């Protein structure tokens, strides 16, 4: 570390922001995380952690903390047909995943993941109740202003403030989000109310016309995470607090395999999140400012890589800054050039999956099902799972 360390301010204490603070700390660089929430509450639901994220979390020591709660999946991407549950394809996540990628795939509750990453961040590095309202660049440093009237100066500002990022407005002029016409119903079902097929250690996806439905266990198997994609109708709120009713949820899946009714009926008050469409950004950095996670590359959840990509960003950004703490603006350029192509590709393939997952019955759907039966997604997605973000920085520096 340099004698006068670079001052890093991170706006947003979600998965990406906390991971950035943890990787920077590991590299000997202090940072301060400014989070708008006044307290750390249990928000969110389930997430899949694929090997590309797990190997990074393990280096932080966060997997030790997660062991009690994370569910090691035995079956992944188990695609089933909507009307009768016929299995179209499934991944072996017990033997093959570890053999190919050196790590298993886990499911977690977002709150447990945040807790595990926080354990790798020094106490006192997170300031709660600090909502960023603007960021101003002055020469080679930046000033972050907060809603409570305070401000902070830093040599680097990382905008990890999620899909509705404030920092993004100071970095680039993004094209406005457009309606995708689809929404996600979300629920956490206590395992004792869930049918046996949903309690298996499997990530299951039911595919049907204009809809698909995903479920997997989290919290050591105590809870089943349920997410279903359907036409958006009047639901336009892109928010984790917007809700729907079980009746609305059931109506979307009325003709589907009757076993799904039992699961949906246990959904309590489902959340309803409108998915908005955003094109990949061409740049993430402006002078001492950069973006990370959903602020940089919001993506549809169909490859389950939103959280993983924010963790990869954090690992790469910390390495780039640590390599040259005296020239942080150059480090941000390097970070951006290492990350944009990969995350843009994931944004594009996640987007394309909406069409493929929702095909009406017919020749195109039959061709899709045949392709699913032939291809092993664990191998086909090797470009995602085999990726070691930290090794990529080292390789690019040679
Ligand atoms: C509440 C919540 C619940 C989620 N639940 C799920 C889920 O169940 N399943 C799933 O697949 N994905 C979920 N996601 C999305 C998923 O977590 C993201 O794809 C992934 O975490 C990307 O991480 P991120 O750090 O970029 O953004 P986020 O995890 O969205 O974190 C952004 C953080 O920035 C803070 N913030 C925003 N604006 C400001 C501001 N102006 N000033 C200061 N702080 C600010 C937010 O409070 C938040 O803590 C959730 C996101 C949120 C915010």
List keywords for this structure.
alpha/beta, 18 strands, 35% helix, binds flavin-adenine dinucleotide, FAD, flavoprotein, oxidoreductase, monooxygenase activity
Estimated structural class:
alpha/beta
The CATH class of the domain at 8-73 and 106-176 and 278-354 and 382-397, by name, is Alpha Beta
CATH architecture of the domain at 8-73 and 106-176 and 278-354 and 382-397: 3-Layer(bba) Sandwich
Would you give the CATH topology of the domain at 8-73 and 106-176 and 278-354 and 382-397?
A: FAD/NAD(P)-binding domain
Mean pLDDT value: 93
Give me the count of strands: 18
Helical proportion?
25-40%
Question: Mind telling me the C-alpha Rg?
Answer: 21 Å
- Report the end-to-end length measured between terminal Cα atoms: 20 Å
Q: Which runs of at least 5 residues are low in confidence (pLDDT < 50)?
A: none
Specify the number of helices.
15
Pfam families: FAD_binding_3 (PF01494)
GO molecular function, one term: monooxygenase activity
Domain FAD-binding: 6-346
Protein name: FAD-dependent monooxygenase
Q: Explain this structure to me?
A:
The protein is of the alpha/beta class and 398 residues long. It has a domain of 230 residues: FAD/NAD(P)-binding domain. Helices cover 35% and strands 25% of the residues. The protein is built from 15 helices and 18 strands. The strands form 4 sheets. Strands 6-5-14-15-16-13-17 form a 7-stranded mixed sheet, with helices on one face. A 5-stranded parallel sheet has the order 8-2-1-12-18. Strand 1, helix 1 and strand 2 form a beta-alpha-beta unit. The longest helix has 30 residues. It is globular, with a radius of gyration of 21 Å. The two termini are 20 Å apart. The mean pLDDT is 93. Keywords: FAD, Flavoprotein, Monooxygenase, Oxidoreductase. GO terms for molecular function: monooxygenase activity. This is FAD-dependent monooxygenase. It comes from Nonomuraea guangzhouensis. Its cofactor is FAD.
